[in-house]
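User: quick one, sequence for these tokens?
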């Protein structure tokens, strides 16, 4: 594991001194330091392939103190870290989730400079057993969602970590996937560690009460939700409703608050409809369309449906041309994202995508597209740099 920058701990101490911070390191063994005040717990040898043992050991390791009380201990532990040995990434991720599961809404930041090659989730075993690794990470992701834990994944430039597989931990739990350098690592961790969790166990149900079918609805199991999350729905309505000026929609949100209180929120609105394409194009929200297209196409790509992703990108490109003709408006960052993507849609292959062949750089961009948003966060990478990366990714894909 690459040596961490103590500046991250200083940032957390200054911004959120009452938060608990725990340290887990991994090479050919996993070491749980917790808040740095106790003797570390080491998991090695046969234990690296025993998921029940790892979960039990990590769950029993308490982290009673906040960083205001443990800053000096953690800083010293970080300074003593050295890079060596193999990469027991899977067991370390499992132990971290178990450690964080006692506090719903917690975050795990998984930093690695190489692919997992020992213990659970090993990606360098014989080809016949490699299929077990993706299953392990999918199972762990669902386990984290159930416990209200968000996982973010960080790798380093110039390394090969199989982000297409381990990135699912972030994709499913609501975290982020980033490739960083030593110089940008601290800033990225600060951005990820912001206390922005709103709810866990979120289910969004969109009802269409005007449809003839009973219980006509769309259900989305969202899981963990942060302030920046945006979700879009796509649907079609029967032509017989075209004579109406408005249509009713109802959104039901079921979730748990940070203190684990169960809540249901219901939002009902009448939304205008039209049969005039010119009126429609003049009032469309381009930011929402851009977010939807990015999320939809990224999801299709990760599922291997690249032909459908290509078709969706082409349709989006045509629509944006029409909108710009009727709407002489300025585009935002998300629209720049969609523009750069649509300009490259012809580079998609015409056959299903093998995720194991997806480079880390391509996987990073696709996962970021899946969590595209129209509202900028406090920390935003330079747009020009990201646009160049997207073009390179589309060429690689």
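Assistant:
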């Amino acid at each position: 594991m690459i040596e961490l920058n103590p500046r991250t701990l200083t940032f957390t101490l200054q911004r959120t001194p009452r938060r608990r911070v725990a340290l887990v390191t991994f090479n050919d063994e996993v070491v749980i330091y917790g808040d740095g005040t106790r003797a570390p717990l080491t998991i090695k040898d046969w234990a690296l392939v025993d998921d029940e043992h790892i979960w039990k050991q990590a769950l029993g390791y308490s982290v009673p103190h906040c960083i205001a009380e443990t800053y000096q201990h953690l800083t010293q532990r970080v300074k003593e870290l050295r890079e060596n040995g193999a990469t027991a990434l899977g067991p370390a991720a499992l132990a971290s989730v178990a450690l964080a599961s006692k506090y719903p809404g917690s975050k795990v930041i998984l930093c690695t400079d190489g692919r997992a090659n020992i213990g659970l989730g090993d990606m360098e075993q014989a080809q016949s057993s490699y299929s077990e690794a993706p299953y392990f990470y999918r199972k762990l992701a669902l386990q984290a969602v159930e416990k209200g834990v968000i996982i973010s994944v960080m790798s380093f430039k110039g390394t090969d970590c199989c982000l297409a597989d381990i990135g699912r931990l972030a994709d499913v739990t609501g975290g982020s996937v980033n490739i960083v350098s030593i110089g940008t690592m601290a800033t990225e961790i600060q951005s990820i560690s912001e206390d922005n969790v709103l709810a866990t166990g979120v289910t969004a149900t969109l009802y269409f009460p005007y449809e003839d079918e009973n219980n006509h609805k769309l259900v989305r199991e969202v899981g963990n939700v942060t302030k920046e999350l945006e979700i879009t729905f796509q649907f079609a309505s029967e032509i017989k409703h075209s004579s109406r000026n408005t249509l009713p929609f109802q959104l039901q949100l079921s979730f748990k608050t940070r203190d684990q209180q169960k809540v249901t929120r219901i939002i009902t609105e009448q939304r205008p409809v039209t049969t005039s394409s010119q009126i429609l194009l003049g009032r469309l929200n381009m930011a929402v369309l851009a977010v939807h297209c990015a999320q939809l196409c990224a999801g299709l790509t990760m599922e291997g449906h690249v032909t459908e992703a290509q078709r969706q990108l082409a349709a989006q490109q045509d629509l944006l041309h029409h909108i710009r003709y009727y709407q002489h408006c300025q585009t935002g960052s998300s629209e720049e994202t969609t523009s750069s993507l649509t300009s490259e849609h012809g580079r998609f292959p015409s056959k299903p995508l093998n995720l194991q062949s997806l480079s880390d750089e391509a996987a990073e961009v696709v996962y970021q597209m899946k969590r595209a948003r129209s509202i900028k966060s406090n920390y935003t990478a330079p747009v020009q740099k990201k646009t160049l990366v997207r073009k390179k990714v589309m060429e690689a894909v």
